[in-house]
Specification:
Blueprint lengths: L3 H10 L6 E5 L12 E2 L9 E2 L3 E4 L13 E9 L14 E4 L11 E4 L3 E4 L7 E4 L9 E2 L10 E3 L7 H9 L4 E5 L3 E7 L3 E2 L10 E2 L2 H12 L2 E8 L3 H14 L2 E5 L9 H9 L1 E6 L2 E2 L3 E7 L2 E6 L3 H20 L8 E6 L3 E2 L6 E10 L5 E5 L8 H6 L2 E5 L4 E2 L4 E6 L2
Bound molecules: adenosine monophosphate (AMP) and magnesium ion.
The site of magnesium ion has 6 residues, from loops.
Length: 407
């Protein structure tokens, strides 16, 4: 067995970020920026009002109170998207809507809630203002969010929804980013079937492929369902050869253990530069990783929990590296065990499926998510973390334990 860190290093060293391409903003969500973006213009581009109300001169409201309002004639209206037709003079007010440019001559906005409009049949309507406001009140200056000419995002920035919004507000329609990986998923096993039809003796349903495809969706890569393959060396060879042609990485489940029909391992070692490892962890001890025609292939173990844990420890960080991320890992926290998390000594690090939550003081608490067998997928379904238990007998109630957060 080899230690987890060594196994991970062997895998990650072989993984390179994908090429950089120009991507339309609409298709860029979750990708990683590969350029420095500088603001060509200020955001907001002009001083504007944060409130619906009246543009005024602050000094004109000196002494205004609810019982002694100051009355000003309303000389114009400025809507968002419009520009005031003239300068605001002393003793005047202009109606103004959120987002509209501040008229020349005004130095503050008083919100509509502090005013009352009085009709004036002889001329301009009158606004009665019931409070003083300071200079600059409710004015959003030009460049308040982004100053023109400043670099705002650099290589490695994830294109989150808000990041895409900032880019759009700068007029960008596309950006340079690492290409989105296409990742194929193959299940192997003669015992596997799909769908509701009754199981024949010895059969089970394929649960790994839907789980792995969903993990890929969540990661933001393009997941390709390459189907279920029989335990037949020729079938697996043909499938893998076709898969590496159309994908940037392949994930298989099953067929990498010590059994007589574990052909994924056999095919990979014949066709690729394969690293078959017995990793000192539980679950997910066996891993076949290799490059086939330069394409990374992750041969994950077949047991349902093992395949998902192996994905978390090896495939997910690798795929993030391909995407151009610099931070490859999910977060770890240190939690207090609210019940014993027991294990036996076997030379491995155990990853127990747990529920993590915060207590009243904001500290992390952790308890078992259920049965810990590598076939017991429901505990994985309930879990939102993996407790990392070093070799030994586990953690007593009240003890501290490191937890890998899964959400
Ligand atoms: P293997 O790694 O092929 O030796 O499989 C180990 C265990 O995982 C066996 O009990 C398999 O039946 C089970 N298994 C393998 N692939 C899947 C799958 N796609 N879905 C559910 N169980 C699987
Ligand atoms: Mg199998």
């Amino acid at each position: 067995m080899i230690p987890l860190d060594d196994a991970r290093r062997r895998v990650f060293d072989d993984i390179k970020p994908l090429p950089i391409v120009e991507v339309p903003l609409r298709e860029a969500r979750g990708l990683v920026l590969a350029e420095t973006v500088s603001a060509g213009e200020a955001i907001p581009p002009f001083a504007n009002t944060a409130m619906d109300g009246f543009a005024i001169r602050s000094a004109d409201l000196d002494g205004a109170t609810e019982s002694h309002p100051v009355e000003l004639p309303i000389v114009a209206t400025v809507a968002a998207g419009a520009v005031a037709s003239r300068t605001l003079g002393a003793g005047e007010a202009m109606r103004i809507m959120t987002g509209a440019p501040i008229p020349d001559g005004a130095d503050a906005v008083v919100m509509v809630e502090l005013t009352e409009v009085r009709a004036n049949p002889d001329g301009d309507d009158i606004v009665a203002v019931m409070a003083e406001v300071p200079v600059g009140n409710h004015i959003r200056p030009a460049g308040d969010d982004v100053e023109a000419g400043t670099p705002i995002f650099g290589p490695g920035t994830e294109l989150t929804p808000a990041t895409l919004g900032v880019l759009a507000s700068l007029g960008r329609e596309s950006i340079r980013a690492h290409r989105r990986p296409r990742v194929g998923v193959i299940s192997t096993g003669d015992e596997l079937v799909v769908g509701p039809r009754p199981l024949k003796p010895g059969q089970i349903r394929d649960s790994n492929r839907p789980g792995l495809l969903a993990l890929l969706d969540e990661l933001g890569v393009e997941a390709v369902d390459l189907g279920l393959k029989r335990d037949d060396e020729r079938v697996i060879e043909t499938s893998l050869r076709a898969a590496v042609e159309r994908c940037d990485a392949i994930i298989t489940s099953g067929g990498v253990s010590m059994g007589d029909f574990d052909f994924v391992k056999a095919v990979l070692s014949r066709l690729g530069e394969m690293n078959w490892m017995q990793v000192a962890i539980k679950p997910a001890k066996p891993l076949a990783f290799g490059l086939m025609l330069g394409t990374p292939v992750f041969g994950l173990p077949g047991n349902p929990v093992s395949s998902l844990v192996s994905f978390e420890l090896f495939a997910r960080p690798s795929l993030r590296k391909m995407m151009g991320h610099t931070e490859l890992e999910r977060r770890h926290v240190v939690a207090i065990a609210s019940e014993p998390l027991r294990r036996g000594s076997d030379g491995k690090v155990h990853f127990q499926r747990v529920r993590v939550s915060t207590d009243a003081d904001g500290g992390w608490r952790v308890g078992s998510a259920g049965g810990q067998g590598s076939h017991q997928l429901t505990a994985m379904a309930r879990a939102n973390g993996l407790a990392v238990l070093p070799d030994g007998d586990g953690v007593a109630a009240g003890g501290r334990v490191r937890v890998l957060l899964l959400d």
